[in-house]
Prior knowledge:
The protein is an alpha/beta fold. The protein has helices at 17-24, 46-57, 78-91, 106-109, 147-154, 175-178, 264-268, 280-284, 317-325, 338-350, 365-369, 373-386, 399-402, 411-417, 422-428, 434-454, 488-498, 500-506, 539-556; strands spanning 60-62, 65-67, 142-145, 157-161, 166-172, 183-189, 193-197, 199-200, 206-211, 217-227, 247-248, 254-259, 288-292, 305-309, 330-336, 355-360, 390-396, 458-462, 511-512.
Amino acid sequence: KPTQEKSRPKDRNAVPAAACQTEQGVMQQRGSVSSPLGDGAFGADARRTHRARQALFGAFILGGVFYMGRSSCRVNLGIDARQLRRAVALGGWAPSPKTSTCVVPTSWVDADHMDAPELTLQMIPGYGNWTRPATAVPPSAFKLIGDPATVHATGARVHVLVGETTHIKLECTHPNCRAGHVVLGARAIGPTPLRFEVTRLKGVDEFLIPFVAYDEGLYKLEVFMIYSNTTSEHTLCDSVHPHYEGIPLLSPPLKVDAAARDDPAEYCGFDRTAVPTCRAASLWAQPGRWRPIQGKSYTVGVPAMQWYPTQCRLPSQNEAQALQRSCPATHAVLIGDSLMDLQRIDWQQHWSAWSSSFHSTAGSLSYVLNHNLIGMVDADVGKALGESKRVVIVVNAGLHDDDKLCCPAWKDHLINELKMDPGWVANHTGPKACAGTFKAAAARLLVAIARWRAQGAYVAWRTTTASWMLWGNINSGTRDSNPVGSSHTRLAAFIKATGVLDTMIDAGIPIVDGWNTTLSRADHGQNTNFNAASIHFGPEVSNLHNKLFVLMAAEHFGCNIRSPPDPGSYNRN
């Protein structure tokens, strides 16, 4: 019978924490560049962090599983965790068993979550109220294997440690699984909502779930079938799928009990009195989680939540706004699709210390580039610089519009609803054309970004938010009301096909993480009741993305709450 796993004994061969801090470039570097909030700074920018991940851990792919070279550093494996999380999001790879990461307990940085309501499965949108298609793979074709199977059969709990990745596997006996036509998903609800990418292991009829929890407590893990008969495991167009199925495969959900480490301070290399403040490089270089807090809820029936990075303290709203005010005479340019338009609304409500303008990429980034998008931004930048203002620009990937070019079924929407030119749409739609269209647009945009940066503007790239399927138990209409949904599995395939994230990293563009900060928030739609489309996220997400951008831009210009810089002292060159 499974027993409670004990904390790991001390590793006598472990390198001291200080050495690992220097090697990995993520831990706080005391005495280095001054922090906007008066703390030590992280030394690596986004590009260096990206390169460090590749060099330090010697990752390689074997049999469809993502393996990591052993590191001598046992403390603060944040880069390791981020590499795994990024790989899962972009390629469906999975981490090796027992990969661990430092996790700062939320009680070290914020007490607001202590008395917050607990999350339940009933609070978050589910999956299974659709009638199962006759051709669907039956749930009976799947079964847990290994120790979790025994635990599930007896109603007991799987025991894990906080911050440690544990593999849970399912075996499938249906031929569609071996053919790669089945796509699964997994989520866990407990102290925080968690979302996991399920990987089909090549050469075997098995699926792997890389479970990792960042807070102690009991989680209920659900595994569900997204599609059971796709033409490709990573297709770019949902119109070739049968409708979203959302079939739960574990009944009841698997119970997973995450136990806290005896001494997080020893594992992380710092204690509760010295948690480093998040810096630009670390904001996207580590995982995080949403956790319920005390406060007014936006979505009916779901408590308010806040984003907590695992290895640093994210400044509060008041701190971030004070830091923004310490950088006067700044103009922000927001560029993106309807998700960025929601950020514009939040910007006007909470971040108006900096003037702002918004330019839409609705329809397609490539299409609006042909309609003077760059010229309009050039005018904004020139006007702000002429008024001796700093310029900060955040560009949304815009893939929630460009991904529609992959699917011919969206042609009528693009032409009739968005009023796009029928000839252009005909020449740029289809699974084979869409990724190339976006690649070409991104290359054109990079030329403009280089010019804006040369003029002194700070430019960041906000990655695409993770969308959700049309959940069965929250849609008031029929399944046919949204036959071509925008699933996160298709978006992940599109992101990988375009190579846009690597393109921006290689160009040295700072990254605002829109993907991983939304992957677990199916509950938080634009409407106060659950949003049937589940693509437009609510104000908690929009506010977080604006806060991350403000912190990164203020850090770039050297703004400091205690000593605001002279507006004309920055170097435009």
